[in-house]
Amino acid sequence: SQKIEQNSEALNIQEGKTATLTCNYTNYSPAYLQWYRQDPGRGPVFLLLIRENEKEKRKERLKVTFDTTLKQSLFHITASQPADSATYLCALRDRGLSGGYQKVTFGTGTKLQVIP
Amino acid sequence: DGGITQSPKYLFRKEGQNVTLSCEQNLNHDAMYWYRQDPGQGLRLIYYSQIVNDFQKGDIAEGYSVSREKKESFPLTVTSAQKNPTAFYLCASSTPGTVKTQYFGPGTRLLVL
């Protein structure tokens, strides 16, 4: 069966350190993978997208890597700040074997807590 | 300001009652979605609409209904057939093309009295 797995345990990290979150997937051939941030009681906000033929993407303090052999994406926040504390969701869109609509599927998210 | 609005923020449903959640967007997006979020679970797709007057069932459509009469609006009705409606409901719209970046509303929390 198809699965997207993110660490369900919260990640606690000291301010200034690099936070690394993991997204593993099974039985998907992603056309692209996205990372979203969700604050409590709010809707997710898009952060970064990486396509199947890309290895790494950066945006300010954020970096995403994509390894289709390991079937894994890593999301890094460098110089983390307490304001980075939130739940981070990965989402992917499968290429699909034939035409037609391919939905975006979300992981369960990992809660990040940055400690001052 | 462009964006997605959802109302109400909190909604209470009595047994046997149908309730409707509102979703409006001014991003000029064709595609719109409804998700349900439960603690410890990912977002689950209820319904989606790729264009006005057309919509499709997602993974958990039973007990829900939608309409898409206008591009800007995609209301979701939680019917009495939905036996476990307590959840956080999120509406989204997405950019056109093959890469669909989704823009989410602030959500509606539905509680059962």
Sum this structure up briefly.
The complex is a heterodimer of chains A (116) and B (113). Chain A is mainly beta and 116 residues long.
Describe the protein's topology:
The complex is a heterodimer of chains A (116) and B (113).
Chain A: E1 3-6, E2 11-14, E3 19-26, E4 30-38, E5 45-51, E6 56-59, E7 62-67, E8 72-77, E9 86-94, E10 104-106, E11 110-115
Parallel strand pairs in A: 2-11
Antiparallel strand pairs in A: 1-3, 3-8, 4-5, 4-9, 6-7, 7-8, 9-10, 9-11
Chain B: E1 4-7, E2 10-13, E3 19-25, E4 31-37, E5 44-51, E6 54-57, E7 64-66, E8 76-78, E9 87-94, E10 102-104, E11 108-112
Parallel strand pairs in B: 2-11
Antiparallel strand pairs in B: 1-3, 3-8, 4-5, 4-9, 5-6, 7-8, 9-10, 9-11
Write up this protein.
- The complex is a heterodimer of chains A (116) and B (113).
- By secondary structure, chain A is mainly β.
- Chain A is built from no helices and 11 strands.
- Chain A has strands spanning 3-6, 11-14, 19-26, 30-38, 45-51, 56-59, 62-67, 72-77, 86-94, 104-106, 110-115.
- In chain A, a hairpin with a 4-residue loop joins strand 7 and strand 8.
- The model of chain A has no long low-confidence stretch (mean pLDDT 93).
- With 113 residues, chain B is mostly beta strands.
- Chain B contains no helices and 11 strands.
- In chain B, strands 2, 4, 5, 6, 9, 10 and 11 form a 7-stranded mixed sheet that branches. Chain B has a 4-stranded antiparallel sheet with strand order 1-3-8-7, with no helix packed on it.
- The termini of chain B are far apart.
